[in-house]
């Protein structure tokens, strides 16, 4: 009997918390979706970008870093022909960055990049795996992209900053 009372009290408390926090069964407020025209400002990232990747921190990597900064080259291919290509498209490409000097390696030199809007881009380096990839988040600053990168693997990782400029 005491066990049944405890279960009922917990269920009532959970229901009360759900109602107070807005997790009840009432209809949720619709999400305001930006009109498609707002994506028109997305930038085309196709081409070759060169610069540097800098290391800020590492954790639980098997190898220690031997450098704090390395040269970087990323190349993103155009997508489709002129009638189908869009700045919003995901651009396949490649990268040349010696991450071994930061204490880790990637299994491929493949990259996927895309422009989020007129001032932000994202890329995934070594996108064919679910761990052991590098996520790149950047902001357009004139003719450069400046941002942060993060490598997460099991059990370690690394993070840093980068700056690249379009060369072609």
Task: Describe this entry's structure for a reader.
- By secondary structure, this protein is mostly beta strands.
- It has one domain (42-166): Lipocalin (Beta Barrel).
- Helices cover 11% and strands 42% of the residues.
- It is built from one helix and eight strands; from the N terminus they run H-E-E-E-E-E-E-E-E.
- It has an eight-stranded antiparallel beta barrel with strand order 1-2-3-4-5-6-7-8.
- A hairpin with a 7-residue loop joins strand 5 (120-125) and strand 6.
- The chain starts with a helix and ends with a strand.
Task: Explain briefly what this protein structure is.
The protein is mainly beta and 168 residues long. 11% of the residues lie in helices and 42% in strands. The chain has one domain (42-166): Quinohemoprotein amine dehydrogenase alpha subunit, domain 2 (Lipocalin), CATH 2.40.128.120.
